[in-house]
Amino acid sequence: MWIHILVFFLTFFMMEFMAWFTHKYIMHGFLWYLHADHHKKDHDSWFERNDAFFIFYALVSMTFFYLWQNNILAIGLAIGLGIFAYGFTYFMVHDIFIHQRFKLFRNANSKYARALRRAHKMHHKHIGKEHGECFGMLLFPWKHYKNA
Predict the structure, then answer these.
(1) What are the respective helix, strand and coil percentages of the chain, to the nearest 5?
(2) d(Cα 118, Cα 116) in Å, to the nearest integer?
(3) Rg of the chain over CA atoms, in angstroms?
(4) For residue 72, how far is the Cα from the chain centroid?
(5) CB of 81 within 8 A of CB of 58?
(6) Residue 126 · residue 132 · CB < 8 Å
(7) CB–CB of 87/68 below 8 Å?
(8) Rounded to an integer, what distance in angstroms lies between the CA atom of residue 27 and that of residue 123?
(9) Residues 22-80: pLDDT tens digits?
(10) 43 — phi, psi (to 5°)?
């Protein structure tokens, strides 16, 4: 039981690294055409091509559920739930809190919240795929926290 809890939390925290890596080298790399509309809206839809990355990670999470359900990987449930929990957190923080795709959490004003918004704003000041910064979601350079 304890190993499953440990694997869940390790997976959740490793997803921050995966989000950073995917964002920096894939979204701002060879899949920029899917991510570009997140930096510069070029359509009238509420949805973005960038939302495809949520679908990818949902499929990865479901694969681990499948592996667990079919007794192929005993810790598959813990890994799948860790990926799901990070994805849910990402949606709540990035899409709802930062980008206000739903008008919630507008009054959050802690030092961490201000620093998180500032770091993300620094990321979005670059509308092209080059010269980016702050590619993570929950973790960001300390300077943004100090200046918040």
Answers:
(1) 70, 0, 30
(2) 5
(3) 17
(4) 28
(5) no
(6) yes
(7) no
(8) 13
(9) 999 999 999 999 999 888 888 888 888 999 999 999 999 999 999 999 999 999 999 99
(10) -155, 170
